Structures are given as C-alpha cells and as structure tokens.
Amino acid sequence: MTKTRIVIAAKAMTREGIPMIQCAQCAQYFHRDCLKCLPKPLLFGDIFMEFTCSVCTKTEEKYVRHSMAWITVVQLVLYNLMRRQDPDTDYPKDRDHKYFRWKEDLCAFIDDYWEYLHPGKQKSATWHNTIASVLSTNSSIFLSGFEKFQQPGDAAWWTLKDYSPPAKSKSYVCQFPYHIRRC
Q: Per its UniProt record, what InterPro entries does this chain match (predicted)?
C-alpha cells in the first residue's frame, strides 16, 4: 500500500450527499465544491489521489493522482453513474441494478473526465476497446445486461455486481504517483 491518507468521509457523504477529501497533512476534510485544484469535480469513492490543502502547502492546493488500472477506472465510473441515478442512496443492501451503455455512457463519462482520471496521458486510438474488454473479462465485478435480459445486443449494457466503489489494492493501482498538479 502507498502512504496515501486520502479517504472519502463516509459520514459526510451520507449526511451531505457530496464527496469529501481529506488533506494528507492536517486531516481537514474538504467538500468537492471547495476544491480548486481538480480539473473536474471530485468523484464519489475516489481514493486514488493524495490531496494537500493550501494552508498546509502555504501556497496553493495540490494533488497527486495515483495511476489506476483500467478495471479501477471503469468501476469508479460505473459507481458514479449509479450514484447519479440514486443520489440519496448510499449503500443499499438490496436494490435494482441500474444498467448503462458501455460506449454512450461509460466511454462518454471517461472521455469527459479524461484529464481527471489520467492527467497528462494521451488517449490511444483503441481505449474504447480496452473498456469493453475490462467489462467482458471481469464478471466478478461487472454484470452484463445480457445476463439479465437474455436478448441480443444487451451485452452493451453494464452495471456493478455490488454497489460499491473500487477498493485500493496492489493489483488495482500503481505504487507510484502518476501526476502531481499544483493549482
């Protein structure tokens, strides 16, 4: 595991319905809307960065984005798409799964959040295919619409088997910072 001390405040998420991030030095929590250094709003469940507030840096906020494996990116994006559908639902035990189209929903979200998820990294011509491959080869995490609807073409619809963000593990993230950004 890395030295990252970033967590999403579960109580704050439940109480206020917006993600928060904790400064790695002073442990103060900051709402997504109060952050100035991120290229896009903070995503729910995003624990793959290290944030330092402007008070601790004595200049401006900074974050270090840790490299995420594609499986982590796809799970994080699906989790956030599901949260947008049910913004008041935190972690229901029994719920209808919301399905999303891999290209129109998942790839569009990743494209919009590219600089947030992969700062400084160029898009390859085949990154869409990587998303499709991640979805179809990780049935322990992702559930195909075909399995539910049993109709041709429904394999383009996907959801999470468990309504939860990705956990930090050695196989899901790089051990080294990916990108440092000062604002």
A: ASH2L-like_WH, Znf_FYVE_PHD
Helices H / strands E in the chain, number of each: 7, 8
- The answer for residues whose C-beta is within 8 angstroms of residue 82's C-beta and 6 or more apart is 98, 100, 159, 160, 163
Q: Give CA 14 to chain center in angstroms.
A: 17
Report d(CA 167, CA 177) in Å as an integer: 17
Domain ranges of the chain: 10-66+168-182, 69-160
Percent of the residues in the chain that have a pLDDT greater than 90, as a whole number = 52
The amino acid sitting at 109 is F
Share of the chain above pLDDT 70, in %: 73
CB 75 within 8 A of CB 50: no
The whole-angstrom separation of Cα 67 and Cα 152 is 35
What global pTM score does this model have?
Answer: 0.80
- For residues 129 and 69, the answer to whether their CB atoms sit within 8 Å is no
User: 3-state DSSP call for residue 144?
Assistant: strand
Q: Are 104 and 95 in contact (CB under 8 A)?
A: no
